[in-house]
Amino acid sequence: MMNWTTLQWVLLLASAVRIQSIGKLCFTVLEEQEAGVKIGSLSRNYSAPYQLHDETHIRVDESTGDLFTKERIDRETLCPTHQDGDCSFPNTALVGLNFDLVPIIIVVDDVNDNAPIFERNEIHIRIPEDASNGTGFPLDDQAQDKDTGNNGLIHYHLIGSDGFFGIRQDRYELELVVQRELDRETQENHFLVLVAVDGGSVPLSATANLIVTVRDVDDNCPEFDADSPITAIVAGLGIKGAAVAQLKATDKDLGKNAQITFSFSRQISDRAKALFHVDGHTGLISLAVDVQVDSSEKHMLKVLANSPLCPPAQTQVTVDIKPLASPEPTIKIRFVAEHKNQVIVLQENEPPTVLALLEIQDTSSDKGTLSLEADSMPFSLKPQKGSYLLSSSKPLDFEMCREYDVTVVISDPHGTRLHGRKVIKVVVEDVNDNAPKFNQTQYEKDIKENNRPGMSLLEMQATDADADLFGTVKYRLTDGGPFSIHEETGVISVAESLDREQQETYVLTVLARDGGDPSQEGFAVVIVRVLDLNDNPPAFSTPHFYFFVSESLPRLSQVGKIPVSDVDDGDNGRIMDVRILNEKVPFAMDLAQGSLRSTGEVDREMQDRYELLVVAVDGGRPALSTTVKITVFVEDVNDNKPQVLLPSSNLSCLTISPATQAGSMITKIYAIDEDSGMNSDITYQIVASEPALQSPFQIDQHSGNISLVQRLSGEDYGMHHLFVVVRDGGKPDPLQTTVWVNLLVNETLEKCQVSAVPEYLPATLPPPKTLPVKDCRGESNAWLVLLCGLGLMIISGGVLLVLAVVFIKHKHTKRKVKKRNTWESGNLCELNPLN
C-alpha cells in the first residue's frame, strides 16, 4: 500500500489540471504558545475533509478544518535571519472531496521572550580629566535583543553615575556624555552600571559594568612635602658627597606630567654654591667638597622644584656646620648576663644578679667616674678594681615593667663636668608565674526556658598578666551538663532547650588555663537561673473525678476536693480561676478550699447524675487552661412514699362469686415508689379486715396479688373490707401508705358499690410479717376444721337437712352463673385487672 505522502503527491499530480485560481490563506500565531492552541479554521472557505501537506509545526482537524499548533514555536529559532522583519512559513492544505490545493501562510508574531544581552560584562572607556561638560564618547559595546519591533528596541540608562555622566542615544549610536567636571586626582575611576531595557509591554533588561578611567592631564604643579627638612647639621669634618638633607616634592599628576627637577636659587651665596650640591632628580643635598672648619657656619639654601608649564615651588633649608670637638670618653661594656644585640635579657623573679662589667675608655689624662642616674632603679653600679659592676638590686617583675633603660653617666673625678651618658637596655623575660584571673569569682545569668538550642549565654573572660604563650588562656567547664564553652573565646552556649520544671538552677565551674608548662589555672562560678515561661497548663490530679452525694445534701456542703496545680513559677503557676462551664447546675467551685460545693437542692428523682466540665486558668500571659470532667452521682434517700395506682380509691369495689375456686387470684394491688434500690422495694400486708373474723383472703407481700385462701361458704357472703399497708424497704425507717380493698361475695354478681369504708383505723400499724403466707393459710384451715366439728356436734340432727338445702341451692346457683358469664366479666372492673 502507498503511504500518505506518496498518495498526496499522486493526488497532486492527478489534479494539477483541475487546480483553480485560489488565493493564499494567511494565519497568525504568537510564538512560545503551548501545543494545541487554535490559530484559525479552513471551514470558513472550504468544506471537509481537510489535510495538510506538512504537519511539522501545525496540524488540522480533518472534520472541522480547525488549525492548531503542534508544538511550541520559537520565532527566533524559526527565522534566525529575519529578526527585523516578518517571520512566516508556508504550507499546503488539501480540502474538499476533490482535494483542491490551498496555499497557506503561517505568520509567527513576536513576543518579548528575549532579554537584551551584552557581549561583555565589563565595558572600559578612558576620558581625559579636562573633558568639557556635554562632550560625548561613543560606546561600541551595545546590547543585542533577538526580539523584533518594540520588543527588540533598547533604551539605556546609568546607575551610580553621581551626576558625572549621562547617556545620549539615537537610532544607531550610543554615547557616554560628561555632565560634571572631572578630576583624576580626586577620583581616577568611576564604576557605573549600564542598564539596557527593551520596549516590551513587560520590559526585560540586562546590565553591564561600565568602568570609566579618567586620563591624566598636566594640571597640577609641584609642592614640597611638609616633612621635608628645613634644618640640617654638618660635622666640622665633612667628606665630599656626604648627605646633608633629603628634600621631597610631589606633583599630583602622573607620568611625564609629574616629573620634577630640583635646583638652587640664584640668590644663595657663593660660599654655599661652593660647599653644597643638589641632585636635580632626587632632591638630595650633599657636600660638594671636603669640609673642615674651626668655627660654626650657617648657610641659608633656597631650593626650587621645577615642572613644565608651572612656576617653580620654593623651600629654604638652614645648614649649620659645627667645628671639630675634643674626643669624649666612652664606656666599654663586657656583658656577664645573657644578652642579645647589646641588650641584656634577665628572667623575672631572679635574685640580684651581676649583669655587666663597665670600663671607661678616655683619651684625656684625667680619668672620669661612672654613676647611675636616679631613675635607673632597681639597678646598682659598684667600683671593682678600676671597673664597675652593673647589677640588679632586687628581683624584677615582668608584669610590673618589661623593659628598663639603665642610664650610666660619665663625669670628671670631681663631678663638676658631665662628659656623656650611656643607656644600657635590660629586657625582662617572662616566666609563667601568674594564673589566669576572672574579673569576679561568681557570675549570675538568667535565661528563659524553652530557649533555642545552641544559643550563646555568656562570654567569660580571664586575663593572665604573663606574656605570649604564658598569657594565652583557654577555657573549659568541669561539669557542663547541657552547657558548653568555646575553648578560645570563653563563650558559654546552651546545647539544648532548658526546662525550668526539670531544673531551675545550674552551677557551672569555668576553668581558665594558661599555656605554660606546667600550666596554671583560675576558676569562676557561673550560676544560671532558668526563668519560667508559661509552658505548662494547670494539671488536675486525675482526668475524671467521680463523687457520690445524697439527695438530702445541705446547701453549700462540700461535694469533694478538686486538687489542681501548675508546675510553672510565679503568676505562671498561680491558679487564678477554677470555674464550672456548665450553666444552671446546683454546684460551684470553692477556689479558696479547692473543692466542689453544692449551691442548690439535688433531687435524684429529677436527675440522678450531673456531668460537669470544670476549667482551671493560670495567671500567665497569655494564660493557659485545662478542662477536667466531673461526674456527680446523686444517691437516693427514702423521701417518697409508695403510691397506690390500683385500686384507684378506697371506695373501689369488686364482686366475688361464691363459686370461686380456692387459690384463685382475686385482684391485685399495684403501687410504685419513685425512690430507687431498697427504698423502692415495696411489700404489701393486710393488717385489718371487716368483718373481723378470719378473712378468706390473703395478699402476696411482694407482688400485691390478693387470692382466695379457702373455698367460700355461706358465712362469707357479704362485703369484706381489707386494710392493706404498702411499705417501701427504706432503712432505718421505711415509708408506707394504706388502702382499703373492698370485696363483695355475692351470687348475683350485681354491681358493687361502696359509699364508705370502716371508720376503724389502728393507731399503730403493725410491722410487716416475716412468716411465709402458707403458714397463715395452715392456721386458717385448722380453725375452720374446728368450727365445722363443733357445728356438727350441736346440730347433728339437722345435718342431712342442711346438706339437702345446700345441694339444691348450689345447683340453682350454677345455672344462674352460666347465664351471666358476660355480666360477671364486666363486674370485675379495675380491682381485677388480670381477669
What would the keywords be for this entry?
disordered C terminus, Immunoglobulin-like, Protocadherin/Cadherin-CA, 7 domains, 6 helices, cell membrane, 61 strands, single chain, elongated, mainly beta, four-stranded mixed β-sheet, 835 residues
Structure characterization notes:
The protein is mainly beta and 835 residues long. The chain folds into seven domains: 4-109, Sandwich (Immunoglobulin-like), CATH 2.60.40.60; 122-215, Cadherins (Immunoglobulin-like, Sandwich); 223-321, Immunoglobulin-like (Sandwich); 333-429, Sandwich (Immunoglobulin-like), CATH 2.60.40.60; 437-531, Sandwich (Immunoglobulin-like), CATH 2.60.40; 539-635, Sandwich (Immunoglobulin-like); 643-825, Immunoglobulin-like. Helix content is 8%, strand content 40%. A hairpin with a 5-residue loop joins β40 (483-485) and β41 (491-494). The relative contact order is 0.04. Residues 32-118, 119-224, 241-354, 337-438, 439-540, 541-644, 648-760 form the Cadherin domain. Keywords: Calcium, Cell adhesion, Cell membrane, Glycoprotein, Membrane, Repeat, Signal, Transmembrane, Transmembrane helix. The chain crosses the membrane at residues 782-808.
